[in-house]
Amino acid sequence: DQQVKQNSPSLSVQEGRISILNCDYTNSMFDYFLWYKKYPAEGPTFLISISSIKDKNEDGRFTVFLNKSAKHLSLHIVPSQPGDSAVYFCAASEGNTGKLIFGQGTTLQVKP
Amino acid sequence: EAGVVQSPRYKIIEKKQPVAFWCNPISGHNTLYWYLQNLGQGPELLIRYENEEAVDDSQLPKDRFSAERLKGVDSTLKIQPAELGDSAVYLCASSLFHGELFFGEGSRLTVL
Predict the structure, then answer these.
(1) What is the mean pLDDT of residues A31-50?
(2) Is the pLDDT of residue B96 over 90?
(3) A91: left (phi over 0), alpha (psi -120 to 50) or beta
(4) Which among A24, A43, A112, A17 is positioned nearest to B93, based on CA atoms?
(5) pLDDT exceeds cutoff 80 at A95
């Protein structure tokens, strides 16, 4: 069973507009959520995270929103830039297990 | 500061042959992870080490996969014998504390 789901395999947006990537999870024990970005032939790199005690975390152009009641989080990128084109993975962990469960990824394409 | 180093980057072998992947984590990172990433999927945890101890190897197919982390620094993941379905990217990651993982570039395995 997929505990972390990214239901949109791909997303295409125009440069300068907002990109919204979504992620749903099923395990209510998850208390820490992260977004990773991956370019081809590279490993995933950490982008932004949020603890379950918060509902929003912002870092420059990137904002992550957490809706615990809906078990849903989203990543907003604004404004989107062509260099943001990559695969974005949502990940979640429970307590101090140190184990990250990843979603399937969403491929973002930002068109100039 | 050097990142997580993995080798080889690419490996092509015939089925039933053995293969080994090496990982050197970021200096000072006690926790080391091996993840498997199939095409179009998110990374899936194979094994997690805290120093020399494998604290989570529940997802490691122990009939053909083995791993070690001698002296609590670098690690080796071995597959013997390899099967066609083992073709994937093998990612190593390390962390200083639970939460943010730093990934290497991965080792892409092709089994013919």
Answers:
(1) 94
(2) no
(3) beta
(4) A43
(5) no
- Dihedral of CA atoms B65, B38, B47, B102 in degrees, nearest 10, equals 140
Q: For residue B31, how far is the Cα from the chain centroid? A: 13
Q: What DSSP state is assigned to residue A97?
A: -
Contact A75, A67 (CB under 8 A): no
Q: How many CB atoms lie within 10 A of CB B36?
A: 21
8 Å CB contact of B43 and A32: no
Task: Please identify which residue in the block is written with the tokens 């491929």.
Answer: A107
What's the length of chain A? Answer: 112
CA–chain centroid gap for B20, Å, is 9
Q: Is the pLDDT of residue A68 over 70?
A: yes
**CA B40, CA A70: separation in Å to the nearest integer?**
26
The rounded distance, in Å, linking the Cα atoms of A45 and A28 is: 25
Check B103 against A44: CB less than 8 A apart.
yes
| DSSP annotation of B80 | S
How far is B14 from chain A, CA to nearest CA, in Å? 22
Q: How far is A85 from chain B (nearest CA, A)?
A: 16
Give, as one character, the DSSP assignment of residue A53.
T
CA gap B45, A99 in Å, rounded: 8
Comparing alpha-carbon positions, the chain A residue that sits nearest to B101 is A46
Distance CA B41, CA A107 (A): 11
